[in-house]
Predict the 3D structure of the following.
Amino acid sequence: ARWHAECWYNWDTTPGWLSELGYDVMEFNMPLLGPNNNGSIGTRSHEWFEGWEKQGVRVMRFFVEPVSLAINFALTQGYQRFVMVGLSGGGWSTTVASALDNRIGLSFPVAGSLPFAMRTNSPWHDGGDFEQQRGRAIYDACDYECMYTLASLEEGRMQVQLLHEADSCCFRSGPRHPAIIAYNQEVAERLTAAAAKNGSG
């Protein structure tokens, strides 16, 4: 199979809409998707990265490093405030990038992740793609609750996680309200503890 190097039609309207509202927008595609795959690799599946990971390549960089590089460039152009929004795999990228790069002041991950303890073998694709699975070493250092906390840790930073009640793809929230409330409370407690520690130091 071959795919054209073009943006995905169903998301292209969002950057245009934000531009019409007066925002300057950079749009990213996931690795092996849209303009990041001219068909020569022969797959769109992120499982392709597993072979490289086994050889010692830190493959997670291909998913989040472009965001930090884009911010570096934007700073040279005079921009000072950065907001990140992502859907599905982009929601996952938003979660991770916002945890790693504190220059992202406001982030909106949409249908991109759930804590590992909340995932099931459901028809809602709870396992996620290669990069979202527990086998990645990044989660030994910082799991999802840790990332949610880091994305809001510093003063003036905030993250709003959005999950669809009846999502037909990924991380449906409908049957999980008590668990979502519980991990939201855990993240809030971590942030309160961090604020108290910083205030007393």
Residues 1-5 have pLDDT under 50 and may be disordered. Strands lie at 82-87, 104-110, 158-159. The chain is about 40% helix and 5% strand.
